[in-house]
Predict the 3D structure of the following.
Amino acid sequence: MGATVVDRPAPEVRRLRFEWPDDLDPDWTPLTPPLAPVANAVSLLMPHVEPYVVRTVRDELDHLDGPLRAEAEAWVQQETAHHGAHHRLNRILIGRRPSLGRIDRWMARTFAWIGGRSRRFDLAYAAGAETVAFVVARWVDPRTGTLFRGADRTATTLFLWHLAEEVEHKSVAFDVHRARGGGRVAYAGGMLAAMVVMAWFTLLGTFAGLVASRQIWRPSTHAQMLSWSFGFAFELLPAMGAALIRGHHPSEMADPHWLPVWLRSYDPDTRTMPEWSLDLVET
Ligand SMILES: [Fe+2]
Ligand SMILES: [Fe+2]
């Protein structure tokens, strides 16, 4: 792979303040009941996968220069803010749902085992995980109105802020991977590994959530989740295929429309942005 040329501004670092009630309902999407267990499972994974990819990219900073170094530094700060925010939510969720604590510990052991075995693998995993995260954002963006209708607004804002920044910085880890000599096959392999780990733990965490919320035997829950899974696979598989095409760069993947617009409403003075509501997507 050739040299990496970056001509984008570095991502903006936004440190949002979230205030969580101690009695937050773990089933915070009452009108779309299967969504909260899935989202909670994803949230649980973030303070494990993100510190791993942050360590990976941070260890390469001294080998980067120019705009890519500035981008990578901002990326590290964005990711650190993401998993810090998820960690606070997760403490509440585990407090209310102890079964999630066991999965959390399993996640910790998994990433302790994965991390640091091979610098090349770690970089490929970081690049691949970022593409998976971008695809999640692209799948969620046009569905926010149906997925989050009636949901807890703070939790919704956390997830959508995170996804919006995944869109903003979708190319950074790939460029670091490439600048440090990573190839296309490794990138595709990293993406596959990241997807498998995410799918497995999302499944496990979702199962625990569905049992705890007594949805596990509800046919409509499974029908809903099956439809989401097919829709997401339809979004993800072409992206994975494109990753193998020579010359493909993540910047060529079309951004979703709403999330980047909403992200611009961040106010650095108050460290807030308008909490998500139906009005925001319907106007
Ligand atoms: Fe993130
Ligand atoms: Fe990211």
Summary: Residues 35-282 form one domain. The chain has a mean pLDDT of 93.
